[in-house]
Design a protein that fits this description.
The complex is a heterodimer of chains A (203) and B (416). Chain A is an alpha+beta fold and 203 residues long. Chain A has one domain. Helix content of chain A is 15%, strand content 31%. The longest helix of chain A is centred in the middle third of the chain and has 15 residues. The chains are: A alpha+beta (203), B alpha+beta (416). At the A-B interface, β1, β2, β6 and β7 of A face α9 and α10 of B.
Amino acid sequence: MKYIIYILISFNLMTFTISAEETRQVDKHEHGVGELNIAVEGSTIEFEFMIPGADIVGFEYVAKSDEDIAKINQALKTFDDYTNIFTLPSNSLCELNGQKVALKEEDEHDEHDDHDEHDDHDEHDDHDEHDDHDEHAEENHNEFYAKYSFECGNINAIKEVNFPYFATFTNSGELEVQFISNMGSTSFEVEGDEPLINTDGKI
Amino acid sequence: MLLKLTFNSLYARLLTVGMTVFAISLSLMLYMSVEKLRTSAYTSFTDTISQTDLIVGARTSSVQLLLYSVFRIGNATNNITWESYEDVIDKKEVAWSVPISLGDSHKGFRVMGTNNEFFKRYKFRGGQSVELEQGNSLDDLYDVIIGAGVAEKLNYSVGTPLIVSHGLQSFSDHDDQPFRVSGILAKTGTPVDNTVIVSLEAIEAIHVDWSTGAKIPGQITPVEEIRQMDLSPKNITAALIGVNSKLQIFQLQRWINEYPEESLSSILPGVALQELWRIVGVVENLLLGISVTVIFTTLIGMTAIIFSSLNERRREMAIWRAMGASPKVVIGLLMLEAFIISVMSIILSTLMLFLTLYVLQPWIDNTYGILVNIEMLAVKDIYIFMLFIIAASLVSLIPAIRAYWFSINDGMTIKI
C-alpha cells in the first residue's frame, strides 16, 4: 500500500491566497517513487517519466555549486539516451521519433501551456516580498521530466519493457506505471529487484 | 502385475483408503475453488467497465471514485459543478462523455441520473453494450429504465409506477413526482443490473422542492409547472470520458487534476482496478495460503495413514517377499499406492468442484455479482496436480523406507 505525501504549498503559490477565487493545490511528490505513463495508440508508443530529483541526483535544492550543477547536467545527459532508462524488444522495430528531457523546478509550477488563463499570475509576481525565499531553499522540490515517443514496425512484439533505470540511478526507488492501450488501462509497480513490466496481451 | 496387486491391496482397505481419498479431495477442492473464485472475481471486476478512458469526479482517492461511480459502492464526498464538467468536455482531447448523478435510491437500489448517451457509451466485458430488453429509452421526464436485477427482484415490468426515495437510506420519498418504468435492460452481470436509471433532468426535477438536503415544508410545485421549468443539471457526481487518442490521455488527466477552479480527480479505470485489487490481494493471498496449508496437512495425514497401516501389513509384505518381491519392490508398491491415492483424489476433487460450481453458480452470481465460469481446467491447475502427485509420492517415501527396513529385518518370518 502506498502513502502519498502531500507537501505544503510553496511560497510562490501562497501569494495566490490573496485572490479568493484561486484554488490552492499542490502536486504530490514522494521521494523514492517515480511516475511513468505509457500510452499506446496504433503503432505509436509514448513513455513519460516524472521522477523526483532526489531519486536521480540525491538532492532537490536549486543546484548552485559546480559539483551539483555538473550532477544535474550529467543526469540530463543520461536521460538523453533512453536506453539508459528503458529498453524495448528489438523485434518490435521501434524507432525513436521525438523526445523531451527537462528538469522541472517547483517554482516553475505554473508553466502550463494555458498560461493565459492565469492572468492573476502576473499580479502576484511581486517576488521581492519573499526575500526569505532562499532560506527555505531546502524545501524546494524538483522533478526530472522525460518524454519519448516511438514509431514501431511491430508494436505487438513489445511483450515486456525492461528498466535499466534502476541500475543507472542508484538512488532510484520504485516506478509507478500507468499504462493505456486500446486493450484498456492497467498499472504496474516496478522495483529494482525485478526491473521489467510484462505487457504481453496488453497492447 | 504390480499395479493390480496395489489396487487389490487398496481395495482390501477400502474404508481407510476411501476416507483418505475423500479428505485429500476436499482439500484439493478447497484450493481449487479459492483459486476459481479469485480469478472469477478478478475478471468480473475488470469486465465491469471497458473502453472508458477516464472517470472524472470530485477530488478523492482513485479507488473510491471507481467504487462509487462504477460499482455504486460507497458515496461521493462531493459533486462537481456542471460548469467544470463543461470545461472538461470542451477540451479538444475529449471524444465523448457521459455525466452521472448519484445519491437517491429506490427500495435499496441506487438511482442513477444520466442521459441516453450512457446506453451507447457504457461498455462492459470487452466492449459489450447494455441493451434494452423491453420498452424504450428515457424519453419522458418521469421515465426510468431499470436493470435486469431490479426488474427481477421487485417484479417490475414496463409501465410499473415507482417512487424514488431521497438519499440512500431515508424515509422521505419523492412521492409527489411518481415515475414510470419505460424500459428494462438485459442482464449484464455488472452493477448496472441493480441500478435504476433516470435522466439528469429528472434528478433536478425531484429536488425542486428541496433545499440543502431537506424538503421545504408545505411547498409542492405541481408536476405541470415542473415540466415547464429549466431543469438543466447544476451538478453531477462523476463523468465517464473517452478520448480521441490514447496518447493524449495523460495530458488530459493532468489538466483535470490541476484544474484550478474546482478540485477534480480523474482516473484511468484499469489503473484504479489494479490498485483496488492490490488491497484485496492481501485477503486473497491469505485464502490461498490457508488452502495450501490444508493440502499439506492432508499430505501428512496420508503419510500417517500409510505409516499406521505398516504394522498391520507386515504379514502382507512377508507374503510379497515370499512371492519373490525384493525390498525395493516393497518401496515401489508403497509409492505406487500413494500415487494411486493422489490421482484418485484429483479426479474426485475435480468432479466435486464442478458439481459444487454447477450448484452454486446462480447463487454466487445473484448474491455477489461474480460470474464463475465453469470451464475446463487451466494449464496452471494441471501443473498444481502434477506437483501434488510428485509431492505425495515423495512424502510416501518415508513410510516406504520404513517398510523396506521392516521387510529386510523380518524377511519371511514375522516376530510380532
